[in-house]
Amino acid sequence: MSTTPIYLDHAATTPVRDEVMAAMAPFFGPRFGNPSSVHRWGREARVALDEARERVAACLGAHSDEVCFTSGGTEGDNLAVLGVFRTRQSEGRRAAITTPIEHKAVLAAAHQVAQEGGDERLVRVDARGVVDHAHFVSLLDDTVAVASVMWVNNEVGVVQDVPALAQAAKAAGAVFHTDGVQAFGKVSIDARRTPFDLLTISGHKIGAPKGIGALYIRRDTPLSPLFHGGSQDRGRRPGTENVAFAVGLATAAELTLAEHEAEHARLEMLRRDFVTALRARVPDAVIHGEGAPTAPHIVNLSIPGTNSESLLMALDLRGIACSAGSACQSGSVSASHVLTAMGVPTELANAALRLSFGVLSTPECVTRTVDALATLAEKARAPRAQAQFAVVDF
Question: From CA 113, how far away is CA 184, in angstroms rounded?
């Protein structure tokens, strides 16, 4: 059996693609100019930046002036939620609607809305992690400034009906934002066909570097900047633009879409084979989000009688990298807010693992990971292990 390390954490980050590195390289060297400068070096940088913006826009079905480069998903989510709320307060629209299973970047922004005197409203989700559409509509009124619902959940991979949710929000006069960080390249995104007003993407999820992303901003969407001090990007995001990384994002986005169909089928097969093999070896394994539409690259599972912290360490010792459905803060482990909102019992939530497939995943990864999980589950639930187990047992 191969001892090559296995990386199953593509939802956390992905390796920078060779094509992306090659596209960015000139902008760390001879094409180093500031795009705001009027001389030849600046003009050269400006052309590259404008072209990158046009390329990203084309990948989203957007106009180039609707793309704002950011430092990544967190900034994009904050700019969307807080930027709209702060602009629309004068209209009497002081509420933000979101869900309890969002990325913390959206949830924290919604909390900030409340800190600034606004109203934070959370939509219910069912046991599969699907947004309650009727409840969403019931929260919409003429005081709602912005509604934000993640397209593909980053922990369980559940796909929300963004077209229907966006339509409902727009009908009520609310601006609709969706975090598309895990959705880009996994579901069809076209601003010409789906009425979202704002959409966030992040480069390091698709083979671009960390530190670059984009926020799609539909024309005429009210939005205040988070930063101040310059007129770059039409005043929406002041500061000297990161030309090299913008070019890298454009390159990665184009490659991702060009490979979408084949890669979607490949990842879907890996996910299906993994779930089938795991159930054959560990029949009581629980797959979170089962029964809902899911993206092809994420599996969130719990094995009764285990805990995620110990499993993660034991898997790491076997050269297998994945992540937990729980967050470590100050040395303590708390259950995932996503699984808790879905009503998953604490014992299972504390045993959750997230495996995410991608460019480094192969059928061998599936076989070795299932073998490891089956072995670890058996050891964890042996009489000598009792309810928990120590890594030294492995």
Answer: 27
